[in-house]
């Protein structure tokens, strides 16, 4: 629990800093002044803070250790963490800020880190015996896939994958809970 809380606090601080920096422009509607400030340092700073927040929320490398560790919680709690609330917040945040990813080098960095997350989670799931940790690592691999789709500029496909992943991961948790209970 402490690893989850501390990892997510880094993202919370980055998100609050991004909000405070956006207030320098008079509003949080960054879309209105994104076109005129695409290549400015301020938009790169806001984009990097938002990307750091999304990476901690969605457990991308180097913040990927908290998601399998959060599986020590009971199955209903871990199902909420996985399918509906916490890990989807980072992906949705980057879906909203997708223009920043496509106009700078942040998208290329995100592609590298999400590809590493996919590979690491898939490889780690092959050597795991606990069913809940296998589900956690499959979630981590799917989050890496969503982030890599986002970094390539297909934000509508990432949103579709986010919704279908939440549905099927909730069903998978109900099945895993029945297996563990029996």
Secondary-structure topology with pairs:
Layout: H1 2-22, H2 41-57, H3 66-69, H4 75-84, H5 86-96, H6 98-102, H7 106-125, H8 131-151, H9 155-181
Helix pairs in contact: 1-2, 2-5, 4-9, 5-8, 5-9, 7-8, 8-9
Organism: Drosophila mauritiana
Subcellular location: Membrane
Enzyme class: translocase
Structure characterization notes:
It is an enzyme of class 7 (translocase). It holds the Pfam family Proton_antipo_M. By secondary structure, the protein is mainly α. The protein has one domain. It is built from nine helices and no strands. It has helices spanning 2-22, 41-57, 66-69, 75-84, 86-96, 98-102, 106-125, 131-151, 155-181. α7 (106-125) packs antiparallel against α8 (131-151). The radius of gyration is 17 Å and the shape is elongated.
Task: List its traits.
182 residues, mainly alpha, 0% strand, elongated
Q: Give the helix tally.
A: 9
> Distance between termini?
26 Å
Number of domains as seen in the coordinates = 1
The total count of strands amounts to 0
Helical fraction: over 70%
Rg for CA atoms:
17 Å
Largest sheet: none
What order do the SSEs take from the amino end to the carboxyl end, as H and E?
A: HHHHHHHHH
Structural class: mainly alpha
Strand percentage, roughly? under 5%
Shape: elongated
Poorly predicted parts = none
Q: If you average the pLDDT, what whole number results?
A: 82
Pfam families: Proton_antipo_M (PF00361)
Organism: Drosophila mauritiana
Catalytic activity: a ubiquinone + NADH + 5 H(+)(in) = a ubiquinol + NAD(+) + 4 H(+)(out)
Keywords: Membrane, Mitochondrion, Transmembrane, Transmembrane helix
């Amino acid at each position: 629990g402490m690893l989850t809380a501390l990892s997510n606090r880094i993202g919370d601080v980055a998100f609050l800093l991004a909000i405070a920096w956006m207030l320098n422009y008079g509003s949080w509607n960054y879309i209105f002044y994104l076109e005129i400030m695409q290549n400015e340092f301020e938009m790169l700073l806001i984009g990097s803070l938002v990307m750091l927040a999304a990476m901690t929320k969605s457990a991308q490398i180097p913040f990927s250790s908290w998601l399998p560790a959060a599986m020590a919680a009971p199955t209903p709690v871990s199902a909420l963490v996985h399918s509906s609330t916490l890990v989807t917040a980072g992906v949705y945040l980057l879906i909203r800020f997708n223009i920043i990813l496509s106009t700078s080098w942040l998208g290329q960095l995100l592609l590298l880190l999400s590809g590493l997350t996919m590979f690491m989670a898939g490889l780690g799931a092959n050597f795991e015996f606990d069913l809940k940790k296998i589900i956690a690592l499959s979630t981590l691999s799917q989050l890496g896939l969503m982030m890599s789709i986002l970094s390539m500029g297909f934000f509508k496909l990432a949103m579709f994958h986010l919704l279908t992943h939440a549905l099927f991961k909730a069903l998978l948790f109900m099945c895993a809970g029945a297996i563990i209970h029996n």
